[in-house]
Amino acid sequence: MLNWTELESEKNYNLWTYIHNKLEFAPYADKHKIVRLSAPIKIFDLSFNFDENYSHEGYLDLLEKAVNIFRKVANKNNLYALKWEGSGYTFDPYKPFELDHLGDWLVDFYPNGDHTFFFSFNFDDGVFSDGIHHTLTFFGENMLRALEENMPLLFKKQQ
User: What's the pLDDT at 75?
Assistant: First the structure.
């Protein structure tokens, strides 16, 4: 793989320990109690973009804007990407994103079934993708500033 670098098992374990202990991650909890993120946060519900209302243009725009947001937050560093009950990775938002056999990122950004996290190395900024309730939660000042400068089309429908 050119961009996604799988974390060693100990590092992956330590990151998930942080997520469970510090962020109180409870994947089966009530929608508003799955994870505790510090303010500032912004939550977007994408449940409208499924089934007959699905917009592939909106999906592609979301991924493009996510890359732009990650580039601003990363500040020439790598970021973490973690999939619940799966492998964790570091990735460079300035390199091309290899896709899996379905044409998706190795760690899904779009909330369509799995819980995923994307973090800066200092954990100050990130995104929680709730694949069960189809929401994206952006947190951290730098992340929210980058989001405002790169607002995805699917989010504009909610403002």
Answer: 85
